[in-house]
Amino acid sequence: MSDELNDLYQEIILDHHRRPRNRGELPVPPATVGLGYNPLCGDELNVYVQTDGGRITDLKFSGQGCAISQASASLMTQRVKGKTIAEAHAEFADVKALLTGESDLPIAVEERLGDIIALKGVRKFVARVKCATLAWHALESALAHSGPVSTE
Fold it and tell me: Helices 85-100 and 67-80: crossing angle, nearest 10°?
């Protein structure tokens, strides 16, 4: 990765950390909440999801954590708001593949991920992958109406 591209990705992450999008809470109900915890570094996130007819109509997050977990939550809320639940699950699969390096994503998929691609460098730091996926796991928990999730 070029230095310029790396600098751009770092700036995107810092921007979402400093000025998170969709930070806040939604009334429960009608929204459901997914609670996520990363015991390794202490990140805690609540993801609030409101759906209508299988589509995510509103999405917010609250909690505390490192710059990666907060930026990832902000990016995630922007990415999946307005999508169907099935599309949100597919987005998480792509993000997980991007962050873990389990498989190389086609260029078209990386381009489709938009600013989330800024998190790609996290794959070099295994412990930080848990920070970057925490919001996504909490989203899955909210959509499934299951209990709290942990990255351990």
Answer: 140
Query: What does the alpha-carbon distance between residue 82 and residue 55 come to, in Å, rounded to a whole number?
Result: 6
What amino acid occupies position 151? T
**In this structure, are residues 144 and 138 in contact, taking their beta carbons and an 8 Å threshold?**
no
Query: pTM here?
Result: 0.90
- Total Cβ atoms within 10 A of residue 60: 21
CA 145 → CA 1, 34, 58, 68, 104, distances in Å?
Answer: 39, 7, 16, 25, 31
The domains found in the chain, sorted by start residue, are 3-147 (3.90.1010.10)
Work out whether strand 55-64 and strand 43-52 pair parallel, antiparallel, or are unpaired: antiparallel
Residue 145 CB neighbours (<10 A): 10
Segment 64-91, tens digit of pLDDT: 999 999 999 999 999 999 999 999 999 9
Residue identified by tokens 């810092």 is: 14
Q: Tell me the two tokens of residue 133.
A: 């996926």
Distance CA 52, CA 7 (A): 39
